[in-house]
Automatic annotation (TrEMBL):
Keywords, alphabetical: Glycoprotein, Membrane, Signal, Transmembrane, Transmembrane helix
GO cellular component: membrane
Species the sequence originates in: Anopheles gambiae (African malaria mosquito)
UniProt gene name: 1269739
Record protein name field: AGAP007485-PA
Residue ranges occupied by any TM2 domain in the UniProt entry: 102-148
Signal peptide as annotated in the record: 1-29
């Protein structure tokens, strides 16, 4: 019975010590990490608050000939980037480098003036353009082939750049396979 009487005297100092310890421990909901190691879903790239699409090229601003651009990204709430000490950071993203050749111009030239080689002159292929001009577009058969090749974006500008196409326009992305590509068998195989 005596132990029950002494217990209330020990509870008050023990609770006071526990409250002081809890106040001394820093409690923060933010974590500072290297934001280049974030996983998908922990950030959004590019930052939608910034206008990072160039209206002239319809690609990310600062796109280089090796098809990469550094853009500003935003980490989710509670993550602080060690590089900038806030939620924003930069990351390299893929883009398509353009050099002033418009897809719609090349296609229209191919349809209406393809027999004179105007499409090939525009894209930077003067030898093929001159050959098409001299043979009337290979007797119009070459013109038809060029319309198909330009429409499917197989033939592009001679300097290796991409066409300027609206951001949500008819861009064709070729998916290639190599020795490291794994195909899942379908049910009907």
């Amino acid at each position: 019975m005596q132990s029950l009487i002494r217990t209330p005297h020990l509870v008050a100092p023990t609770m006071t010590v526990l409250i002081l310890l809890l106040l001394l421990i820093p409690i923060s909901s933010e974590v500072e990490i290297d934001c280049n190691s974030l996983r998908m879903g922990q950030f959004i790239c590019p930052d939608p608050a910034l206008r990072q699409i160039d209206p002239k090229t319809q690609q990310l601003r600062g796109c280089t000939p090796d098809n990469k651009a550094r853009v500003w990204c935003v980490a989710v709430e509670g993550i602080v980037c060690s590089e900038t000490k806030n939620t924003s950071f930069t990351r390299e993203m893929p883009c398509k480098w353009t050099n002033g050749y418009h897809f719609d111009t090349a296609l229209l030239l191919s349809v209406f003036l393809g027999m004179f080689g105007a499409d090939r002159f525009y894209l930077g292929y003067p030898a093929i353009g001159l050959l098409k001009f001299c043979t009337l577009g290979f007797m119009f058969l070459g013109q038809l082939v060029d319309v198909i090749l330009i429409a499917t974006q197989v033939v592009g500008p001679a300097d290796g750049s991409a066409y300027i196409i609206p951001y949500y326009g008819p861009v064709i992305t070729v998916v290639r396979s190599d020795n490291w590509t794994y195909r899942l068998p379908q049910d009907n195989w």
